[in-house]
Design brief:
globular, mainly beta, 16 strands, four-stranded mixed β-sheet, 1 helix, Immunoglobulin-like, about 5% helix, about 220 residues, five-stranded antiparallel β-sheet
Length: about 220
């Protein structure tokens, strides 16, 4: 009986910790255009954060639209570092979290996809866009990705059409990608809605795709 009481008391003592009392949220914003920098939600950008006085690094996943949120934070001082990004690396940032705290990151994406038009023309999905380089690395690949959910991208797709590029562009470059619907009839069904998203990636180690917003089309 005494052993049972000791176990019960110990369990109650373990449950006596304070609950998280704060939240943090924000966006990854293109420093030039002011637009959100879209991501891959899987194997894409994460934020590493370390609370002052502790040694364990935790992570937050950035959503595919370039925003993030963590509602289970403790008030305190943190070091936050975005990693695995599709933008030029950022230095660690000191942040004070208390209550609902907004922390945005201004970034320089490796590539920008502008003037995007995606539409159906008969048996073909046509995607056109203008690619703008912000650095000097070659553009490795461009692509059109299809998925039933808005999380569509290189990491999550039902169908994809990729084109090797292997060039640098000093001026904005226009591209067109076509996807044949009948050729993908085993994966794309008439009458069903899909999300279509164009992306491009630079030719550097551990690079990630840069994207334009997904477009929903019912076949």
């Amino acid at each position: 009986m005494m052993a049972l009481l000791l176990v019960t008391a110990a369990s109650c003592e373990k449950d006596n910790y304070d609950a998280p009392d704060s939240s943090i949220f924000g966006s990854f914003i293109d420093e030039e255009t002011g637009e959100l920098v879209e991501q891959d939600i899987y194997n894409g950008t994460v934020i590493e954060y370390l609370e002052e006085g502790y040694s364990t690094i935790e992570t937050m996943i950035v959503k595919n639209d370039g925003t993030y949120r963590n509602n289970l934070m403790f008030s305190g001082n943190y070091t936050m570092t975005p990693v695995r990004g599709n933008f030029e690396p950022l230095d660690p940032r000191q942040v004070r979290v208390k209550g609902a705290t907004q922390v945005d990151f201004l970034v320089k994406p490796y590539l920008r996809l502008e003037d995007v038009v995606i539409y159906r023309n008969g048996d073909v999905i046509r995607a056109s866009f203008t690619l703008v380089q912000t650095g000097f690395d070659k553009v490795r690949t461009i692509g059109l990705f299809v998925f039933p959910e808005p999380t569509v991208g290189y990491q999550m797709n039902t169908v994809k059409v990729e084109m090797a590029v292997g060039e640098r562009f000093k001026a904005p470059q226009k591209f067109d990608i076509n996807l044949n619907i009948p050729a993908n009839s085993s994966k794309l069904k008439e009458g069903k809605s899909y999300f279509f998203r164009v992306g491009a990636i630079v030719d550097v180690p551990e690079a990630k795709y840069n994207y334009a917003p997904a477009v929903r089309i019912t076949l």
